[in-house]
Specification:
- This protein is elongated.
- Strand 6, helix 7 and strand 7 form a beta-alpha-beta unit.
- It is of the alpha/beta class.
- The chain folds into 2 domains: 170 residues, Glycogen Phosphorylase B (Rossmann fold, 3-Layer(aba) Sandwich), CATH 3.40.50.2000; 187 residues, Rossmann fold.
- The longest helix has 21 residues.
- Helix 8 crosses helix 11.
- It has 17 helices and 13 strands.
- Pathway: Bacterial outer membrane biogenesis; LPS lipid A biosynthesis.
């Protein structure tokens, strides 16, 4: 198994747990994170060495990454495992899978690349690389079936962890918020560039809303200490804004809130699972946006919108990320109880589709592949 980031470590640990329940003698090796290592995984390299993002950083580390990948390929070709499982990190893992599959080793890729969204030509490499694709979302499985790739939709692990029956008032008390006031959570992302580009519009929106609604309170969860410092500096430009800044604790913040204003990503999925009306705002460097938009094959960026194929979460992207428009959208949702109820109902229906006990489904699919005749 090879994982390249924290989310993959979580998936890997869950998969290991279920495999061990069926075969206590199973052994695991490759590259794993702390959660996998705690379950007995033998990691030949530090997972953090693979955790690079963006367009430039991977090139800076390219020699090291190529050496690590070569070492993994040679090791498993010399001592073939029953199955190789690459978890996410497609740019790193698909080449490993392709080499090992050509050597007669069964290969699985867990978490679909966004090939359905952009760079669809990658499907040719996926066909060559993996015997089985495990997807988190049903629309991904449909895409692979259309391209004759063996696929199993296993659901999303978060769907078994989060639900819309959380205690909002208890969460407010934990955060020192007034449970009798409406709460807007502002979540401008976890990366420096996201906060720099998105937070000003979000905070301008909050400033506008605070001048119109004295019964509305605001809270921002910082993803880590660096983002906390960054947001603290930004908030100096809003000395009269009644806003609470907390370090981490994003799940509690979301639970305590009546409405969320978020950057895109996994947070949109968490918001859906928690049944929270949500508005998505996103902005990136203009050149990156130009490149991405020219390659993208999708109408939405929010995962719930992709699942529903409609804008359950209003999206304000790039030049449309305007504070006054965000404020208008927030007020429209807060003042429309019927709309909020209908959105929560649709979120609940989508959540039930993803609640499949993903780790168990993935383990069963892996065993079926191992046991299948070559």
């Amino acid at each position: 198994m090879v994982v390249g980031e924290a989310s993959g470590d979580i998936l890997g640990a869950g998969l290991m747990r279920e495999i061990k329940l069926r075969n206590p003698n199973a052994t695991f090796e490759g590259i794993g994170g702390p959660k996998m290592i705690a379950k007995g995984f033998n990691s030949h390299f530090d997972q953090e060495r693979l955790a690079v993002m963006g367009f430039v950083e991977p090139f800076k580390r390219l020699p090291e990454l190529l050496n690590i990948r070569k070492s993994i390929i040679e090791r498993f070709q010399a001592d073939p495992p029953d199955v190789f499982i690459g978890i996410d990190s497609p740019d790193f893992n698909l080449t490993i899978e392709e080499k090992l599959k050509s050597s007669g080793i069964k290969t699985v890729h867990y978490v679909s690349p966004s090939v359905w969204a952009w760079r669809q030509g990658r499907i040719k490499k996926i066909v060559r690389a993996c015997d089985l694709m495990l997807t988190l979302f049903p629309f991904e499985a449909n895409f692979y079936r259309e391209h004759n790739v063996a696929v199993k939709f296993v659901g999303h692990p978060l769907a078994n962890e989060l639900s819309d029956d959380q205690d909002t008032k208890a969460a407010c008390s934990l955060l020192g918020l007034d449970p009798n006031k409406q709460t807007l959570a502002i979540m401008p992302g976890s990366r420096e560039s996201e906060v720099r580009l998105i937070a000003p519009a979000f905070l301008d929106c909050a400033q506008t809303l605070s001048e119109q609604r004295s019964d509305l309170q605001f809270i921002v969860p910082a993803a880590n200490e660096k983002r906390y410092k960054q947001l603290t500096e930004l908030l100096k430009n809003y000395p009269n804004l009644p806003i609470t800044l907390v370090l981490g604790d994003s799940k509690t913040v979301m639970t305590a809130s009546d409405i969320l204003l978020i950057a895109s990503g996994t947070t949109s999925l968490e918001a859906m699972l928690l049944g929270k009306p949500t508005i998505i705002g996103y902005k990136m460097a203009w050149l990156s946006f130009k490149i991405m938009s020219s390659l993208a094959k999708i109408n939405y960026i929010g995962l719930p919108n992709l699942l529903a194929d409609k804008a359950l979460m209003p999206e304000f992207i790039q030049d449309k990320l305007i504070a006054d428009d965000l404020a208008e959208a927030v007020l429209k949702i807060l003042d429309d109880d019927a709309y909020c109820a209908s959105i929560k109902k649709e979120f609940s229906e989508l959540s039930s589709q993803l609640r499949q006990n993903a780790s168990l489904q993935a383990a069963n699919a892996v065993f079926d592949l191992i046991e299948a005749k070559s």
